[in-house]
């Protein structure tokens, strides 16, 4: 399998970034809903589990940068033979996903005042960074005023916007694969090639 994309299918790097980010994004949701449904999220006992959510969130935020760069740098496979309206909806959904992969990790990180422990190292929380110190001095806003609106955006988008956008993406992929029986899903599957597919 080649690393770069072609006009027919995605390359190995694009597939790796797509599925790794997707797994981390969905995994972060699974972890946080586990905390919400089965643990007391205000208890210190939930922090090790929440830390997994933070790790996965930072992972998504870091990987979206090379993923965007690779998308802009590389040729993209040809679009499906659909109407202009469907193409515009698909493009909007894709950029909506990229927006989520930026907004959710960003608001999650800057709205958390606990370090993220990766085991070998820790990422300091935003409250203790030089950037927040600058915001505090320049804007005259303390953590108690800064954190609630950021946290509100994170939860609002995560609860009411992210799932419909992700669900639409999955539904569209399955529609192309099961109903239209075209190459749209196959060309992004790991270890697969559109060669030989009709």
From TrEMBL:
Co-factor(s): heme b
SUPFAM superfamilies per the UniProt record, alphabetical: Transmembrane di-heme cytochromes
Keyword Ligase: no
Residue ranges constituting the Cytochrome b561 bacterial/Ni-hydrogenase domain according to the UniProt record: 10-190
Localisation per UniProt entry: Cell membrane
One biological process term in Gene Ontology: respiratory electron transport chain
A Pfam family this chain is assigned to: Ni_hydr_CYTB
Chief place of localization: membrane
Single GO cellular component term: plasma membrane
Listed transmembrane segments: 12-39, 51-70, 91-111, 160-179
Sorted UniProt keywords: Cell membrane, Electron transport, Heme, Iron, Membrane, Metal-binding, Transmembrane, Transmembrane helix, Transport
Molecular functions per Gene Ontology: electron transfer activity; heme binding; metal ion binding
Membrane topology: Multi-pass membrane protein
Family per similarity comment: Belongs to the cytochrome b561 family.
PANTHER family: CYTOCHROME B561 (PTHR30529), CYTOCHROME B561 BACTERIAL_NI-HYDROGENASE DOMAIN-CONTAINING PROTEIN (PTHR30529:SF7)
Protein known as: Cytochrome b561
């Amino acid at each position: 399998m080649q690393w770069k994309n072609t006009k027919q299918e995605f390359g190995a790097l694009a597939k790796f970034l797509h599925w790794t980010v997707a797994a981390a994004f969905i995994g972060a949701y699974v972890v946080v809903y586990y905390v919400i449904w089965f643990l007391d999220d205000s208890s210190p006992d939930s922090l090790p589990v929440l830390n997994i959510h933070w790790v996965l969130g930072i992972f998504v935020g870091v990987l979206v940068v090379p993923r965007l760069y690779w998308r802009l740098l590389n040729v993209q496979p040809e679009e499906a033979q659909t109407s202009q309206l469907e193409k515009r909806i698909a493009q909007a959904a894709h950029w909506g996903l990229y927006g989520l992969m930026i907004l959710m990790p960003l608001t999650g990180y800057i709205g958390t005042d606990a370090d993220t422990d990766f085991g070998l190292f820790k990422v300091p929380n935003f409250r203790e960074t030089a950037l927040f110190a600058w915001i505090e001095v320049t804007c005259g806003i303390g953590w108690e005023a800064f954190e609630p609106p950021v946290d509100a955006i994170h939860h609002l988008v995560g609860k009411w916007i992210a799932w419909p956008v992700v669900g639409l993406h999955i539904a569209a992929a399955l529609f192309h694969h099961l109903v239209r029986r075209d190459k749209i899903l196959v060309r992004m599957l790991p270890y697969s090639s559109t060669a030989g597919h009709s």
